[in-house]
Design goal:
about 350 residues; alpha/beta; Rossmann fold; 3 domains; seven-stranded mixed sheet; four-stranded antiparallel sheet; 11 helices; globular
Length: about 350
């Protein structure tokens, strides 16, 4: 039986303190089976538009929501697959051209494949995401906040970064340490790392999981050197997927996603954390997986991440991803993920 969590009422918006209107109710955990029934509110201030859980699990109990989380599993090894090797070569060529990696040079076929990768919008943004939009900086210090089992740290270390991570989940931290990575267990704010000691921070699908997002971002600002960059990626509540699937949108993910952002709300949160030099856009990077998951939730009320899918379902999801790419040409806010790049001045 899933462990129940204590909760606290959250009737007002975290950002602007406006009242929240009930948007969805009686939601359960459709992905990992945590206990409870959950409701989501939307800020009544249209200029803000933040979504949040109400009631919200208290910080002392939120760990119960991660008992069966995906970061406990090892990343599948696909390195032997011919298509993986082809994409890996294309990715290297793309990263060399656009981000300055592999300065010693690459074979001509990888450089050509990197240019061809640009023709596939879904794969190109996967390559961008694989380095979290960070330019090469040999032995630059990078901290991944919410690093999970360490897949990004391992990749960035191979590209020349000096990496470390932090995560709240003991099982995920143990998995990352087993890979030989330096990973802290606990809250970023409580680690008391040296100020102005980092060149880059990354947060992939993390900021939506925390009770006080602005405080976390403020700590990132303190830790960065001048010119250092924080890159955040998080689900976008203005996305095409949310507009289509509403309460069945996979990225609602109750009870783990405490605050759900649109680009304006995330930019405002970053400003409250001390950043002034900011860029934001939306991306279709996660559209394929979102369409698979949301379709399953709508049909069955559940989705198992990584479960094999029929060929026709996979083809349908790729077609839906293409539709989202076309929709982004008309409305740049429709991507499934928000990307914010915040530079410390």
């Amino acid at each position: 039986m899933a462990a129940m969590m204590r909760t606290a009422s959250r009737p007002n918006c975290y950002l602007c303190r406006s009242a929240g209107k009930l948007l969805y109710e009686n939601l359960d955990d459709r992905l990992f089976g945590a206990g409870g029934s959950w409701s989501i509110r939307a800020c009544e201030n249209a200029a803000c538009g933040l979504l949040w859980l109400d009631p919200m699990p208290v910080p002392e109990d939120i760990g119960k929501a991660y008992a069966a989380y995906y970061t406990h599993d090892d990343t599948p090894d696909r390195t032997g697959h011919p298509l993986y090797r082809l994409f890996s070569g294309a990715r290297q060529g793309y990263l060399a051209t656009h981000y300055g990696y592999f300065p010693s040079g690459l074979p001509a076929w990888k450089k050509l494949a990197g240019w061809l990768l640009m023709l596939h919008p879904g794969r190109r943004v996967v390559a961008d995401f694989s380095v979290m939009w960070q330019n090469a900086l040999p032995q630059g210090r990078l901290l991944d906040v919410g690093c999970g089992n360490g897949w990004l740290l391992e990749s960035m270390k191979a590209l020349g970064w000096a990496v470390e991570g932090v995560d709240l989940d003991p099982q995920a931290v143990e998995s990352a340490r087993a890979r030989g990575l330096q990973v802290h267990l606990g809250h970023l704010v409580g680690l008391h790392l040296p100020a102005q000691s980092l060149d880059a921070l990354t947060m992939s699908h993390f900021i939506e999981h925390v009770h006080d997002p602005a405080a976390v971002i403020a700590e990132c600002h303190r830790l960065l050197k001048r010119g250092g960059r924080l890159v955040m990626v998080t689900p976008n509540t203005r996305s095409l997927g949310h507009r289509l699937y509403r309460k069945d949108w996979m990225h609602l993910d109750p009870p783990r996603h405490l605050h759900l952002f649109n680009p304006d709300a995330l930019i405002e949160t970053a400003r409250r954390g001390g950043f002034r030099k900011l860029a934001a856009w939306t991306s279709l990077r996660d559209a394929y997986g979102m369409f698979l998951g949301s379709r399953s939730i709508r049909r069955s009320g559940r989705y198992t991440m990584g479960a094999p899918q029929p060929a026709l379902t996979r083809l349908w999801a790729r077609g839906a991803e293409l539709v989202e790419w076309l929709a982004l040409k008309v409305n740049g806010n429709l991507g499934e993920e928000i990307v914010v790049v915040a530079e410390k001045e």
